[in-house]
Structures are given as structure tokens and as C-alpha cells.
UniProtKB/TrEMBL annotation:
Keywords: Mitochondrion, Repeat, TPR repeat, Transit peptide. GO terms for biological process: mitochondrial respiratory chain complex III assembly. This is Tetratricopeptide repeat protein 19-like protein, mitochondrial. GO terms for cellular component: mitochondrial inner membrane. Its main location: mitochondrion. SUPFAM superfamilies: TPR-like (SSF48452).
């Protein structure tokens, strides 16, 4: 209700009161801004309570007019009070408040995403997106759209994820961001991975090739303090790209060789740039040893696993027990049961130290298998 309507309502109540009372003393008090109330003997006197005359009037009058007066005046006073008590925000203050609300919505959505509550996160992000549009904040819109795209990606809603990621790319490129920006490369890699999972192999290959080309060129020019994040992204793309190649079922043998060459090239690049200390490098090297084993390249598999374990010990890699376990499997596959037993025991020791029950269970299975195979051989 606006101020004019509120004042009219108040005036209507006051008019009803004046019609039912002796108006002269009351009008005199209003001129002096003093509250009046009726006391015994029918005389008027000033009181301490601002609305004392309201309640005295209703005690003296039980007519509908007095009741109407109380209703109108009571509501009117309340509305007038609330109208004047609420601060009037400027346009700038409203914009600031809206932006703060949007940021709070984004923070809440991120928390829901981390906890796996995707539906709640999606609802809040749509609210935040509307606020960003009302604010005419293109950067805010892109940020929220990127969060939505990643939400769809995690939920495997690939149609929505693809459309939203492409919209983010369109806006980022239109804003002048270069193609080798980490955010653009990562989105491109996620699109390639989605294409791989939906068997759009040509698009997937083109996407991974694009990402690796941009990242390799970027790694050659970056200073040391800026390489870490780019290196991790580079290894992530290598991992996804090799997984894609291994899933091309109709070219299994060819894909195995191609995936091996891809990881070899990536690891060689990392060595040249002296970036072998990261957990991502060691995980990829472990995967390469598995590819060597599948191709019966046992000596190469053993060599790279020993190198990987050495790096993992120095960096305290969380998968160290699994690396020892993988090496034990390679020895066993190659018929070297003695080294397999020794390495399996080391894997168990590390698994217990790291409190890794999954690794402990896998080591026990391997040890039991080794005992059976040794018994069969003897």
C-alpha cells in the first residue's frame, strides 16, 4: 500500500472518531500536539499515552461508529508507522543487494554440488542465473552457466551439458579470451570425453587433439611458477584421451598401440619440462605399465613401475600401495614369483601404514594366488 492510501485510511478513522465525540477539546489538543483522554466527570485532560484518547473513546462508546474508528485508526497508525520506518533503498543499493544475493545463491549451490545434492543445486543456480541477467552481469552469467554445465556433466545429462558448455565457450571467445585459456581447454576436453562416451569418435578425437596441441604449446612458453595447473590439466587430457582410444572396440589392437604412444609422448614431454613430480604424472606412468603388460612388453613394464614407485615414495603419493601391487602383478604375470612375493609384502606394509583396506584386500588375493601357483609349479 502506498503512502497516500495509508494517509487516507488514517484520516477516515479520525473522521469517524470526531463524528462521535466532542470535537473542540480534541482539536485543541491536536493543535498543541498533546494526547487527550477522558476522565471521570466528563472532562478532558492530557495523558502520558499517545493513543490514550482512542481507548477512552471506545470505553464510552459502543456504537458502530466508534468501532469503525478504532479499526481505521489502528490500521492507519500501523501502516503509517511501517511506511516511515522502512528505509528507502536507492537504485545503487538495490543493485548491490541483488548482487550479494546472487553470490550467496552461488555459494549455496556449490555446497549442494559438493554434497551431491544436484537437484537442489540446479534449482538455486537457475535463480542465481535470473539475478545475474537482471543485474546485466555477463561475467556472473557465464560463471553460473559453467556451474550448470558441470552439474549436467556430472549427472551425465550430456545433451544439456553440451548445449550449456557450448554457450559458455561462445561467450568466453566473444569476450576475447584466447583458445588456450585453461578454462576453454578444460571445457573442450569435457566435450571430447562426452563425445567419446556417446560413441561420437570423430568429434572426440578432434577434441582431444585440439586440447593436447594447445596445452603442449602453452607448456613450452610458461614460466615455472605458472606451470603446475597447466601440467595437471595436460595429464588429465592425456588420461581421458588414452581411455577413449582403448574404448574404440572395433580397432582394439590399433587403439592399444595408439594409447600407449599417446601416454609415452605425454610423459616424455613432462620429463623434458621437468614436471615428473606430480601425482598425475605418476598415475599416468602406472597406467602405461599396464598397457605394456597387455602387449607383453614386460621389461618395459617393470622398468617404468620401478621409476614410478621411486617418484611416488619421494612425493608420498596416496596410491603408493597400489603401485607396489601393480608391480607385483607384473612380476607374477612374467613368472617371477619370488620378486612378486617380495613386492606384494611391501604393498601390504604400505597399505597398512596408509590405512588402505581396499589395497590390503587386493594384496591378500594376489598372495593367495601366488601360493597356489608356486605349489602347482613344485
Amino acid at each position: 500500500m502506498d503512502l497516500a492510501k495509508t494517509l487516507r485510511l488514517f484520516q477516515s478513522g479520525l473522521r469517524c472518531f470526531l463524528e462521535s465525540q466532542r470535537v473542540q477539546p480534541l482539536m485543541s489538543s491536536l493543535k498543541r500536539n498533546q494526547p487527550y483522554s477522558k476522565v471521570s466527570g466528563g472532562k478532558w485532560s492530557t495523558g502520558n499515552k499517545t493513543n490514550g484518547f482512542f481507548f477512552e473513546a471506545i470505553n464510552r462508546q459502543s456504537s458502530r461508529t466508534s468501532l469503525r474508528y478504532l479499526l481505521y485508526c489502528g490500521v492507519g497508525v500501523e501502516l503509517v508507522g511501517s511506511t516511515f520506518s522502512e528505509p528507502i533503498q536507492t537504485a545503487e543499493e538495490k543493485q548491490k543487494q541483488l548482487k550479494e544475493d546472487m553470490i550467496m545463491d552461488i555459494k549455496r549451490a556449490i555446497l549442494f554440488l559438493r554434497d551431491g545434492h544436484f537437484r537442489k543445486a540446479e534449482d538455486i543456480l537457475h535463480v542465481a542465473l535470473t539475478k545475474a541477467r537482471n543485474l546485466k552481469d555477463p561475467q556472473g552469467e557465464v560463471y553460473v552457466l559453467d556451474l550448470l554445465a558441470n552439474l549436467y556433466y556430472e549427472e551425465r545429462q550430456y545433451d544439456k551439458a553440451e548445449a550449456t558448455f557450448k554457450e559458455v565457450l561462445r561467450r568466453e571467445l566473444a569476450a576475447g579470451k584466447p583458445e588456450d585459456t585453461d578454462a576453454i581447454v578444460e571445457i573442450s576436453a569435457k566435450l571430447a570425453r562426452m563425445y567419446a562416451e556417446t560413441r561420437q569418435f570423430d568429434k572426440a578425437r578432434a577434441g582431444f587433439d585440439f586440447c593436447l596441441e594447445k596445452l603442449e604449446k602453452k607448456l613450452e612458453t610458461l614460466t615455472e611458477d605458472k606451470k603446475e595447473e597447466v601440467v595437471d590439466l595436460f595429464f588429465k587430457v592425456l588420461q581421458w584421451g588414452s581411455e577413449f582410444l582403448l574404448n574404440v572396440e572395433d580397432k582394439a589392437d590399433e587403439a592399444l598401440v595408439e594409447a600407449t604412444e599417446l601416454i609415452e609422448h605425454g610423459l616424455a614431454t613432462a620429463k623434458r619440462l621437468e614436471q615428473t613430480g606430480s601425482a598425475a604424472y605418476q598415475t599416468l606412468a602406472n597406467n602405461l605399465s599396464t598397457l605394456y603388460t597387455w602387449q607383453n612388453r614386460m621389461d618395459e613394464a617393470v622398468a617404468i613401475m620401478k621409476e614410478t614407485i621411486k617418484l611416488a615414495v619421494a612425493s608420498e603419493h596416496w596410491s603408493l600401495s597400489h603401485f607396489y601391487l601393480n608391480l607385483a602383478h607384473i612380476y607374477a604375470e612374467n613368472g617371477d614369483f619370488k620378486n612378486a612375493e617380495v613386492t606384494a609384502e611391501k604393498a601390504m606394509e604400505v597399505a597398512r601404514k596408509l590405512k588402505d583396506p581396499e589395497a590390503e584386500g587386493e594384496v591378500k588375493k594376489l598372495q593367495e594366488s601366488l601360493r597356489q601357483r608356486i605349489a602347482e609349479r613344485s
